[in-house]
Every structure is written in C-alpha cells, then in structure tokens.
C-alpha cells in the first residue's frame, strides 16, 4: 500500500493530462483515470515487482482509453464536429489562440495510434522504449508512428495557417 | 564521429532530446549544412513545445477529490465489506437467503475486518506454529548461522525491511526461520528455543488493515500468543507456554523491533 502511494500518487496529474489529451473530453477523462486507479489498486499485487510502475499504470490507462474510444467511436466523431472551445484542454489565450486551435484541430485529425505515441513521447516524456511497453508494440513501430504523427501535424497546421510564414517551403526532404 | 548516415529516427530523437552527445553533435552538424531539413526539424520542435504548453495546465490543476488514491483504496475496502457491515438484520437476511447458514457465516467471517486484520494474523501464526515449531527434523529452512541471508530473503518477499529481535538475554536462542504462506501473502516465521526445548515463534507480515494495533493476547488450546501491528507490519509471538511468561517476551520483541526499524 505504501509503495503504491509513493509510486502512483505522483503520476495522477500526468494520467489526467494524457487522458484529457487522448479523449478530448474533460469529464470522461477523469472517469477514465478513476477506472484506471481502481484497476491499479485491485491489481497492484499482480504487478511485476521489477517492472516500472509508470509504464504499467500508463498501459492500464491507455488500454481503458482504447476500449472507451472504440465503444464510443460513432459518438466521438459526432462530438468532434461540434466540439466547442470548452472541450479543449486549456482555453487559448489571445496571443497563441490561433496556433492553439490549429494544433488541437490537427491533433484530432491524427489516428489514435499516432496521437497516443505523439502524446506519450512529446507530452508525457516517456522514452521510446517506455512508449513501446505502454502500447505493447515494437520500438520501431513507435518511431514510425511518431514520424508520421509529426509529419501530419506539420502538414495540417501549415495548410490551416499558411500566413505563419513557414509556408510550403517545408517540404519533406530525404 | 560514428560516420553513420543521419536517419529520420535521429531527427526525431534530436527533437525529443533523446540522443547521446556525440550523435547530437552529428545531427546538429548535418542540420547546419541542410537548411531545409533544419527548418522542418525546428517546426516540429516548435509544435512539440506548443503541444506541451497546451496540455501543461491540466497537470497543474488540483487533482479532483474523486481521484484521491487513499479515498479510492478506502472505497474499495468498503465495497468489499459493505454487504456484511450493514445492520444485523440485513446480514441475517442475507444468510437466510443464502440458505447456507454455515457457509454464509464462514463467508461473512472471511470478509469481515476481523478475518483480514490482527485476528487473521493470529490464526495464521497458530497454524504455522503448529506445523513448524513442532517439527523435530527441520523446523527452520535457514539456520541461525544464515541469519543475514534469511533476513534479506524475508525482507525482499515482504517488500520492506524486517527486524530480527535478539532474545538471548531472556534465555531464548535464535534457531532460524523461513518464509511461510498465509492467506494474505508471504510472512516471515522466526523460531527461538530455550534450554528446556520450549519453542517460541515470531510471525511477521505486512498488514492491509489494522496496520497499527495495540498488543492483544490470543490463546489456542495450550498455545499462548500475543499479536500487534506497528507501521503496517503485523507481529505475532506464540509459544506453548503460559501467557504470563510469554507476555514480557512479546514486550521485549516489540521494543527491539521498534528500535531496529526506526534506527
């Protein structure tokens, strides 16, 4: 119990962040984190003692999120159509509002498998190996999904905002 | 220089600051010579920064009370106990409905705090005493000479340091011990004996409930025992000896264990 408090409690803010970024639904995200923590409590004794608690907890959260997303897929796409600003994780401030909105919209266009890799690596600071463990995929797949996610995000925001000056000169170079 | 060609993976690892210094310098040198790639990498790095900034406020929000770990642990415990902790009438109704008075009673007992806390520890201690302390051939798996190995083993399996009291001043020699199974996970069993062959057993295991509990006596036939819990570890001292002789020994064990674990 004590080691669970020590290892899991500090993760809760990051778990909420990942759930919110992945689901784009603040209330649903906290429900998901609660489900995750309940599972962590119930299965704590099954955890491999030599394993890393963070990747273990994140993999539980991720699997729950994927189950929820696939169950609500139809509803999810509808919700995206009329998603308003309150559904975004952070209300955009005036100076970076345009970029924030474009970025969030571009993030939503990513397939879940790319979005999760991008969030785990870029936002949650997991190493490529840790992300591979959380998602239960080879590290090479993590790399290719990350590359595709970044390419797509870049193209999407450039198409949305050619006025930012980065423009079309940023073509892919081998 | 490694001389390896710069791969797409290197560019992403550069963005994520996941390269070793040598490789990072190589990628930097490559980017210095390829302005178009450098612009693309810079744009991706900027998006990475923007993404982090966009979601950072979530992690800085106060954690909602519904996600408090102690509260969720308590909630889980209550959901287990709730059906049996209601009024006597509802418990009785449940037993009647089951139509299995004996089995239902046993089940209720299993889920009651009595059977998961100190009371369970007392039963486990008595069962293990009966099996191991009476064994004349091999009462312990690791002998007193292997004290350090035994302590390391038990501490590892119990996932926390365990203290071993020295009872020689009270006339009890340390014999050795072993890891034993209980319904609540592994426990350490340490045996001592005196010149008359009286064996004293100390059982120790982590407690999920009643983690700090004052010492209380328990008896099973000719067996006397004292059990308590301190800082999440439960202890039982048992012997086929009168309780009044065992009591000062239990006090001594508690005093030493407390001293060793706090030092």
TrEMBL record, chain A:
Coiled-coil ranges per UniProt: none
Domain RNA polymerase sigma factor 70 region 4 type, residue spans: 101-153
InterPro entries: PhyR_sigma2, RNA_pol_sigma-70-like, RNA_pol_sigma-70_dom, RNA_pol_sigma70_r4_t2, RNA_pol_sigma_r2, RNA_pol_sigma_r3/r4-like, WH-like_DNA-bd_sf
Entry keyword Transcription: yes
Classification via Pfam families: PhyR_sigma2, Sigma70_r4_2
PANTHER family with a match to the protein in the record: RNA POLYMERASE ECF-TYPE SIGMA FACTO (PTHR43133), RNA POLYMERASE SIGMA FACTOR RFAY-RELATED (PTHR43133:SF25)
Protein name (record): RNA polymerase sigma-70 factor (ECF subfamily)
Annotated transmembrane regions: none
Keywords: Sigma factor, Transcription, Transcription regulation
From TrEMBL, chain B:
Top-level lineage group: Bacteria
Alphabetical UniProt keywords: Membrane, Transmembrane, Transmembrane helix
TM spans (from-to): 86-108
Protein name in UniProt: Anti-sigma factor RsiW
Native organism: Azospirillum picis
Lineage per the UniProt record: Bacteria, Pseudomonadati, Pseudomonadota, Alphaproteobacteria, Rhodospirillales
